[in-house]
Structures are given as structure tokens and as C-alpha cells.
From TrEMBL:
It comes from Paenibacillus phytohabitans. Residues 4-231 form the ABC transporter domain. The keyword ATP-binding applies. It comes from the Bacteria. Keywords: ATP-binding, Nucleotide-binding, Transport. One of its GO terms (molecular function) is ATP binding. SUPFAM superfamilies: P-loop containing nucleoside triphosphate hydrolases. InterPro entries: AAA+_ATPase, ABC_transporter-like_ATP-bd, ABC_transporter-like_CS, ABC_transporter_ATP-binding, P-loop_NTPase. This is ATP-binding cassette domain-containing protein. It holds the Pfam family ABC_tran.
């Protein structure tokens, strides 16, 4: 079953197209990474899918209904969203902020303890939000987005302010949620994160999806058809894959000259740069 379907979506702000023509779908249970340089339109699409913006043209559906229905309270229960403007009550404590969400979703008391553990903030529960570090705030916002264990979770750069230990903790928690059935739509600038977490990724550039597939598939598709060979005498070669190269390698092998042979596989970051012509932003 598809949880998200996007068909020929365009969104313009005045004369400028933030999204030109975007189509894709996400099946239930997938962790999908939406990648693209700064300003590519990733947040705009999340806003369309969560009924904060309407597309200029095209269709966006969530749970097999037009995305604008996500405004309705029955639908709001079904998804969670983390963006950098997710609001927190600054003068309330971590726990008091979460209590508001718990009541809103009509959840049992234990939900707050559970989610605090999830984001590794049990020790900070009494702290006022305005006294938290950036990374702690990000974890409180994440806690608010997942306290009701939604069917669908939108995460706009969820680990941008986190140290590696807390990122790893969050990844583990997100995998756990995903195993329990939550579909996750994730934007990130961290290619290692995308590779580690996502079943599939799409790279957005100039308002259109340039490539879509699993990180493994994309790396295979963009593999250089070349082999690099280091010889024991210090010489190094990059050779096209083919019969002539095979003969040369066989000859070097016979003479015991091979130190290392490697086929070149690009990283997701290499593919990103190739597709967008930009450095990671
Ligand atoms: N409300 C708005 N009015 C006018 N232009 C907007 C509005 N919202 C977004 N834009 C423009 O649309 C484009 C896409 O913005 P968006 O925030 O979706 O990018 P993004 O891919 O999420 O970027 P980042 O990675 O920096 O968060 C940008 O050029 C932005 O300036």
C-alpha cells in the first residue's frame, strides 16, 4: 500500500518554481530520504504533504486521500512532523511540553516516560526549554513528533544539531518505530545518514527529482566502469573494464606484481554532487 503519492506536483512562489514537476510514491513501511541542496524545495514538499501549503498544480495524496485533508484532526493523529520551526513552549519544562502533547493525543501517562527515554532526555525532564542546548531542543521537538507513535513521520533534518552519540541513539529509536510500522519521510544533508537509514532516496534539484532508488542501486548505476590497480613497485593504474585490462592484470598477477585491485564505487555524496553540481550545503 502506498502511504504517499505525489503526481506532477508544481509549487511556485511568484515567478519562481520551488517545485517544477515532482512525482514519486512511498509504500508503507519505507524510510525514504528526500535529498537536495539548500533551497531545492524539500521543506516545501513536506508542507504540501502536511496541508500547510497547497500545490500550484498536480496532486499530492497521503493515506490515499488528498493531502489537504491532513488538516483534519482525525488525520493529524496519524502523522508526526519535525521541522526547525516546530514550536516549543520556552518557559515550560521538557516534561510539561510533552504533557501538552500527551493530553492532545489522549495518551496514557507512561507515554511521556517512554518518549523521554527514546530521545535520551529522561535526566533533563525538569529543565525549562529555554535553558536547553540546541541538540537537546531538537530531541524535545522529536519527542513531540513521535509521542503518539504515528503511522507516518516527517523529519526535516532531524539530526542537524546532534552529536554522533545522540544521532546514533535517535537512529536506533527510529528503526524501532519503523519496525513497528511507521513510514518515515526524511530530509537530510548528511549523506552517511541517508545511506545508513534510508531504504530509498531521491535527489531533488531544480524542482525535479534527478534520481531515485536505494543507495545500493544508485551506487551501482553510477559505478565507474574502471578498476584501479596498485602494483608492488609503487605504480598505480586506473583501467577500463574489458579484455585488454584483464590480460594486463593476469600478466601482473603471474609476475607477483599486484598489491591491490579495487573497483571504484561512488559514495552517495559523489552521486549528489554529480546530480546537483553542488557541494554539500
Ligand atoms: N513562503 C514562501 N514564499 C516565497 N518563497 C518561498 C517560500 N517558501 C519557500 N520559498 C522558496 O522556495 C525555495 C525552496 O525552499 P525550501 O525551504 O523548500 O528548500 P529546502 O530544500 O527545504 O532548503 P533547506 O535544505 O535549506 O532547508 C527556496 O528558493 C525558498 O526561498
Amino acid at each position: 500500500m502506498e502511504v504517499i503519492q505525489v503526481e506532477r506536483v508544481r509549487k511556485s512562489f511568484g515567478p519562481k518554481d520551488a517545485l517544477a514537476d515532482v512525482s514519486f510514491s512511498i509504500p508503507k513501511g519505507e524510510i525514504f530520504g528526500f535529498l537536495g541542496p539548500s533551497g531545492a524545495g524539500k521543506t516545501t514538499l513536506i508542507k504540501i504533504l502536511t496541508a500547510q501549503l497547497n500545490p500550484t498544480s498536480g496532486q499530492a495524496s497521503v493515506f490515499n486521500q488528498p493531502a489537504e485533508r491532513m488538516r483534519q484532526s482525525a488525520q493529524k493523529m496519524r502523522f508526526g512532523i519535525l521541522t526547525d520551526n516546530s514550536g516549543l513552549y520556552e518557559r515550560l519544562s521538557v516534561e510539561e511540553n510533552l504533557e501538552l502533547y500527551r493530553k492532545l493525543y489522549d495518551l496514557p501517562k507512561a507515554a511521556v516516560d517512554k518518549v523521554l527515554q527514546f530521545v535520551n532526555l529522561s535526566g533533563e525532564r525538569k529543565k525549562k526549554v529555554n535553558l536547553l542546548s540546541k541538540g537537546m531542543r531538537q530531541r524535545v521537538m522529536l519527542a513531540c513528533a513521535i509521542i503518539h507513535e504515528p503511522e507516518l513521520l516527517f523529519l526535516d533534518e532531524p539530526t542537524s544539531a546532534l552529536d554522533p552519540v545522540n544521532s546514533a541513539h535517535i537512529y536506533k529509536g527510529l528503526r524501532y518505530l519503523n519496525e513497528k510500522g511507521t513510514t518515515i519521510f526524511l530530509t537530510t544533508h548528511d549523506m552517511a545518514e541517508a545511506e545508513l537509514m534510508c531504504n530509498r532516496v531521491a535527489i531533488l534539484y531544480q524542482g525535479q527529482i534527478q534520481v531515485i532508488g536505494s543507495p545500493k542501486e544508485l551506487k551501482r548505476q553510477h559505478r565507474k566502469h574502471a578498476v584501479s590497480v596498485d602494483l608492488t613497485n609503487g605504480e598505480a593504474y586506473e583501467l577500463p573494464i574489458g579484455g585488454e585490462t584483464a590480460d594486463r592484470i593476469a600478466d601482473w598477477m603471474k609476475r607477483g606484481l599486484i598489491d591491490r585491485i579495487e573497483t571504484k564505487e561512488p559514495s552517495l555524496g559523489d552521486i549528489f554532487i554529480k546530480m546537483t553540481g553542488s557541494e554539500l550545503l
